[in-house]
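User: I'm designing a mutation panel for HD domain-containing protein and want to avoid disrupting the core. Could you give me a predicted structure to guide residue selection? Please restate the sequence first so the numbering is unambiguous.

Assistant: Good idea. Sequence first, for numbering, then the predicted structure tokens:
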Amino acid sequence: MIPNIEQAEALHRKYAPSKAAYDLIHTHCVIISIIARDTVRRANARYRQAQGQTVAQEELLAGAEDKGQPTGTVPDHLLDEDLTVVGALLHDMGTYLILKDDGSDGSTVTFQGERYIEHGILGYRLLLDEGVDESVAQFARNHTGVGLTRAQVEKEGLPLPPDDYIPVNQEQEVVMYADKFHSKHTPPIFVSEATAAKRNARYGQANLDRWKVLVERYGVPELGGLAGRYSMQVV
């Protein structure tokens, strides 16, 4: 099945062991779905404009940091907004399976740091077991970092089956990209493009170069409004 928004939320409630875990992880997924949705809308507006269709300036700039001019490149096809949103809502389901402290006693929700890299593949398997379509389950599998290659997995000895964990379409790529602008930090925070670039640079120049390609392709989301809505800081 391809879940709708209500079914996606029901899956969160099913696997969340506490209200605190649900609030942290589900809220993160909702935020990423908003960033990803706006990113797709801007990309689709650029596509329609390139096809000679009339597009309002507001469509080209909606949810973008640079309000002066449209940002991002023109995709070669219209992206599926509904698939992107549901994929974003479910991309972090695996984090419920690697909790260290679920916060049920009023403590801070924390994760098993050494296992965090596994949350994508765990979420992928969880979703498949729930009967979720492969096209949606892959959003969980393929969103870590800016894409993990088989070579990286083997070279770094990561606790994952040797394989490529890279988006197979632009919808998955949008969610992977959007995911870098918010963190389930304690407390949760929005992450500026500059900070995200520094984080990616820690893993080498090739990683940073892939990040720069994504920024050029999709533009930078405007985070101030969302940060205000959720009472979180942008760092």
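For picking mutation sites, this is relevant: Residues 5-180 form one domain. Residues 19-50 form the longest helix (32 residues).
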